[in-house]
Amino acid sequence: METVKSINYNAQLSTRALAEQPRPRLGGRRRTSTGLAPLYSFGGGFPDPESFPFEGMLQATADMLPKEGKDALTYGDVYGYLGLRELVCQKTRHYEGYEISPDNVMITNGSSHALALACELLVDPGDPVIVEAPTFSGTLGNFRRYGPQLIGVSLDNEGIRTDELEEKLKDLQKQGRPTKLIYTIVNFQNPAGMTQSLRRRTALLDLAEKYDTMIVEDDAYGELRYDGEPIRALHGLDQSGRVIHTGTLSKILGAGVRLGWAIAPKELLPKLAVLKTDGGTSPYTSRVATYYMREHLVEHVEVLKAIYHQKRDLMLERLRVNLGDTAQVSRPDGGFFLWIKLPEGTDPFKLVELASERRVGFVPGPSFFPSADEGYEYIRLAFSFAALDEIRQGTDLLCEAIKAAR
Ligand SMILES: Cc1ncc(COP(=O)(O)O)c(C=O)c1O
Question: What does the alpha-carbon distance between residue 164 and residue 160 come to, in Å, rounded to a whole number?
């Protein structure tokens, strides 16, 4: 439609809409600053497109439609398709070793949606919300729309620093401003890579209890573990009903199915449901994904682990060969990302230009911090999307750009 008159839309927009700048509407390969799509895409947390189980999804659709057609093609339950909620229970039993009930689960449009709902449920404008610094940029954007005061707590190799967290909680309590939620990514933290240790998990739960706040636990990558032993989720350790846990099929099936979930105490779930008037999250896709995953979950995750493990190791190797110990590179036990502290003296702006000329995409560090003036000495690389050859060539080119960006 042609616009006849020019309108200053900013004057029409809500404060929520103004809180975030519009992002380019591009697919998997966002443009670099030269205007060209990167050939080496280490930016977003996109799953490996070669890993998608096309045959399996076709078969699942063929099996599902005759059995469920009418229910699949109409509005669904606000809590989501029961079969998928049962699958979440099956997955929790298999990977976490504890039982939950479908009554604890709400299906959402990816876990981003569950995270936004949790924030909407708990946070009023101006409320203090604690996030890890750095943390997942998508959630920062999601949360900002609800107008909280985002307060960062730093990380060390055991995850969120609970000593610093307690100081902040205490300080806010003194000001008469209770913290509404603590957002944490427990496994292979995005972007920093570490996994929260058991003693930190316990300390975090104790602090939430002591300062009467809720925890939102984001576990988008938990099944994709390449080294070490799993540690029980905060949700599985929690005795007091303070944890809303979010998960997703994006990384273990395909981000295009847009299916995630919140696991929450039974008393809280109806309150979350009040905020979700959408005719049920995709009754059709939920059924296809469930028919596939309930038969193939474990075997498919094993295939994915082998793919991503190899990619992680290749990118780590190219970084080590090219940069030696001039840069600090994370070594996550799982997930999709490496977090790099650039060599002393690297100009982050020049690096963006030089990498862009070489058509290498990555995400600069400041995107992951609650305050925009932090994180320039870091970049995040995703090893998940690019093919092995692209990882090899693209990482070498990126390292060349890093060395030249002084
Ligand atoms: C840590 C983390 N949480 C949540 C998400 C959201 O994923 P989705 O909305 O596709 O479930 C992502 C995606 O990259 C992520 O990295």
Answer: 9
- Calculate how far, in angstroms, residue 325's C-alpha sits from the geometric centre of ligand 1: 31
More confident residue, 26 or 208: 208
Q: Does ligand 1 come within 6 angstroms of the Cβ of 248?
A: yes
Does residue 254 line the site of ligand 1, with CB under 6 A?
no
Cα–Cα distance between 80 and 313 in angstroms, integer?
A: 38
Q: Which phi and psi angles does 316 have, rounded to 5°?
A: -60, -40
The count of C-alpha atoms lying within 13 angstroms of the C-alpha of 392, restricted to the half-sphere facing its C-beta, is: 4
Q: Report helix, strand or coil for 384.
A: coil
Task: Give yes or no for residue 192 CB within 6 A of ligand 1.
Answer: no
Name the residue of 245, 250, 367 to mutate for ligand 1: max ligand atoms within 8 A of Cβ. Answer: 250
Tell me how far the alpha carbon of residue 12 lies from the centroid of ligand 1, in angstroms.
30
Q: Provide the token pair at 393.
A: 């060539």
C-beta of 384 in contact with ligand 1 (< 6 A) = no
pLDDT score recorded for residue 8: 86
Which DSSP category does 102 fall into?
G
Which 8-state DSSP code applies to residue 125?
T
Could you tell me the maximum CA-CA distance found in the chain, to the nearest angstrom? 63
The region that residue 280 occupies, defined by phi over 0 for left and psi between -120 and 50 for alpha, beta otherwise, is: left
Residue whose Cα lies nearest atom 12 of ligand 1: it is 220
Ligand 1 centroid to Cα of residue 112, in Å, is 6
Q: Which residues contact 133 (CB under 8 A, 6 or more apart)?
A: 152, 153, 154, 155, 368, 369, 370, 374
d(CA 271, CA 121): 7
- Which pair of tokens denotes residue 183? 């957002």
Residues 185-238 have pLDDT tens digits of: 999 999 999 999 999 999 999 999 999 999 999 999 999 999 999 999 999 999
Q: How far apart are CA 69 and CA 184, in angstroms?
A: 39
Q: Quote the CA–CA distance of 248 and 190 in Å, as a whole number.
A: 14
Bridge partners (DSSP) of residue 323 are none
Nearest Cα to Cα of residue 43 among 23, 18, 59: 23
**pTM for the structure as a whole:** 0.94
